[in-house]
Amino acid sequence: MMGGMAGLEGVEQPRPRSSAAAARWSTATDDEQAFKELELFGNPTEEEVRLPSRPQSAATARRITSYVMLRQWQLPPQTAEHGVLLVSELVGNAVRHTGARVFGLRMLRRRGWVRIEVRDPSRGLPCLMPVREMDVSGRGIFLVDKLSDRWGVDLLPRGKTTWFEMRTTDR
Questions:
Q1: Mind listing the pLDDT tens digit for each residue in 14-36?
Q2: Global pTM?
Q3: Is 157 exposed, middle or buried (0-12, 13-18, 19+ CB in 10 A)?
Q4: Calpha distance 130→86 (Å, rounded)
Q5: Which of 1, 14, 35, 67 has a 20 to 30 Å separation from 48 between CA atoms?
């Protein structure tokens, strides 16, 4: 069993879902909350969204990501589920390990690909650690490595952008 994500223990986490439940993943309440958050923070498909570096922001980033992937981009539920999980991991790392006041979220789509970026002011690089079955932390980048098609880190003059990309089937 997986433990907390990137130091966000005790904070609302995505629940495991069966494939049958994935189609019902985003409820009307989630959509309404995500729409309010898009109005408040902005749309990460148009420009970088800056969120406060607090554990509660992981839930905000998940809802926004889910809304964009399912409603705006109309991607398959499993693709959205993986995207939301990976965003949660990157946000958790930014909140837990960087000491930042804010972090940025950006979502890009081009034919056949989705790219999601989390920017923070730290130049410390994430590490892909070996993971054992009983580990309760340290799985974030492992999950990003396993569920994305590619990922990486772009160092910036002040900080870094950690990103992942997933192939999509365009409709």
A1: 444 444 444 445 578 888 999 89
A2: 0.80
A3: exposed
A4: 17
A5: 14
